[in-house]
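Our consortium's second objective concerns turning raw sequence data into structural hypotheses that experimental partners can test. To show how far this objective has progressed, the report includes one record in full. It was chosen at random from the queue rather than selected for favorable results. The single chain below, 165 residues long, was entered without modification.
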Amino acid sequence: MKVRDLLDDLENQLGRYYDRHGKQYHDIIKRSKLLTDHMQADKENDRNHIDYVVPPLDDARQKEYANFIARECLIRGIRIDSSDNYNDWRSALRRSVAMERYIKYLENVRQWNEDGRDTVPLIEILELLIPCILHLENRVGEKMVTTIIRKGLDLYDSGPKKEFF
């Protein structure tokens, strides 16, 4: 893969988001206490993790976690509506964190481009190339279902199969 191609692709995907939030990215990272590592073993019990599971019927912890998520949203400039609950805020926060990862990748690729690299260094781009296991499972399941449907439709000449495709 060429560095220039990857850079163009990332620039297109981020578009106006980088222009709006890219300059704030480093400040956000410094101020944020949010943990997002999906491989963290105790993420459901870590109060600073985006996947923290608030114990049911514990109003104090729910309020504490809602304040934490609200703070993280405000750091990122995400508008929070008092009528929404912290799960709605957390969903918006997840989208923002995903874009922050792309900003990090974009900045790395820009640096490679400035360094004059022509090809993407495999060892440095490994996390871009390996999808998370959940996405991989979804793709495999989707492929299996598609294959079964296509095999079933091969029994027909053109009518239903042509309409399906």
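The partners drew two points from this record. The radius of gyration is 21 Å. The chain has two domains: 3-124, 131-165. Both points have been shared with the crystallography group to help prioritize constructs.
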